[in-house]
Amino acid sequence: VMGLITQLSKYKTELEGKLYHEIGRLEKSTGVCSECGQHHVLTLNDRYFTCTACETYQSRDLSAAKSIAKTGELDLIAAGIVARVT
Ligand SMILES: [Zn+2]
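A: This is the predicted complex of the input protein with zinc ion.
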């Protein structure tokens, strides 16, 4: 199912003339604070957590999504493909 979702996402993105990029499969996103990058060990029941470094209260899924977006943006900037993601 995930393969189909990524294929459709890639198709729609390119159809709109935008850039599609996948981050590495081993990039850690769950439990990474989206504000400061601190890593936390979470169980599957931990839907929310408070960062031990910056003390922000975050949703596990929203924080993971922001971390994935930030990692992708840094990948594209490091590759020289974009200067800044909008
Ligand atoms: Zn933090």
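The first strand starts at residue 48 and ends at 50. The beta strands are 48-50, 57-59.
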